Amino acid sequence: MSPLVEIDRLSKFFPIKGGILQRVVNTVKAVSDVSFDIRAGEVVGLVGESGSGKTTVGRTILRLAPATSGAVRFDGVDVMGLDATTMRRYRKRMQIIFQDPYASLNPREKVRQVLTHPMRLHNIGAPTEHEDRALSLLEKVGMSRDQLDRYPHEFSGGQRQRIGIARALAVQPDFIVADEPVSALDVSIQAQVINLLEDLKNDLDLTMLFIAHDLSVVEHICDRVVVMYLGRIMEIASAADLYARANHPYTKALLSAVPIPEPSRRRSRTVLKGDIPSPIDPPSGCVFRTRCPMATAECAKVVPELRPVGDGHFSACIHTT
């Protein structure tokens, strides 16, 4: 099966301007040479620390930010080169669930308007059907009819995120970017929203890029996981293989921080030294080498390519097999 979404050597740099003439004085290398794909009906997790470039990848895939170089092929078409009119047709097929449920909803619109506005914008169904569709969406995300005429400020964070999920589903998209959809929520509410997304994935056969900074969040919902660090991919594997046989030292460090629900068991913790370097001046060679317990002098000279270390399992480290 050919992928629905193909990210091919994608890079995104942000210029830093300064001085009276606002000339470019430096560059933030947010994403560098990233490649992976997402098959139809698959949920791929994109994981890494804050500052690793995850959100930038998600926004660039949707062309909410222009790419510096590389391609994003959606259903075989490179969306990076589409004009505004053509891109609007593709936006109907590509939606986003935002990280902050408090800022992502228009405070002046009732839930009814939040859900029907995308239908009107993209001509989804007859106008007389919109209210029924809005009610159906609200019920699908675990809410009720009487909440259609309430404003966002009347809901909790978890309820607002459910409304945001319903809004993303309103145009019947083929692909959704979930940009850290539970990171702003309480732990107990996080589990509820993840369970909801997992149910929707199974019921609607959703194709999704699920962005998170915590590997424990993506363990059950994702089919495959892509691990990023400082703008580059460190490892790609099926979720089961990654949790059982992580290869890259960065992935192993992230996994060592995931709590085990059994009090009698403990993981050997790997504590990374120092902070993540600045994307303005990333380390030469392997960007992870300044914090890696396995780093050698060779790591400063070579930018490791992703190479196969198992069936569908790829790692970017010169010291692992």
Verbal overview:
The chain is α/β, with parallel strands linked by helices. The protein has nine helices and twelve strands. Helix 3 packs across helix 4, helix 4 packs across helix 5 (157-169) and helix 5 (157-169) packs parallel to helix 6 (187-204). The longest helix has 18 residues, at 187-204. It is globular, with a radius of gyration of 21 Å.
Give start-end ranges of low-pLDDT stretches: none
Rg of Cα set: 21 Å
Class of the domain at 5-93 and 174-245 in CATH? Answer: Alpha Beta
As laid out across the biggest beta sheet, the strand order is 6-7-8-3-9-10-12-11
CATH topology of the domain at 5-93 and 174-245: Rossmann fold
Order of helices and strands: EEEHEEHEHHHEHEHEEHHEE
What is the CATH-assigned architecture of the domain at 5-93 and 174-245? 3-Layer(aba) Sandwich
CATH homologous superfamily of the domain at 5-93 and 174-245?
A: P-loop containing nucleotide triphosphate hydrolases
Total strands: 12
Q: Report on the biggest sheet.
A: 8 strands, mixed
Structural class: alpha/beta
Helix amount: 25-40%
Count the DSSP helices. Answer: 9
- Amount of beta strand: 15-25%
Span between termini = 28 Å
Mean pLDDT: 91
Overall body shape: globular
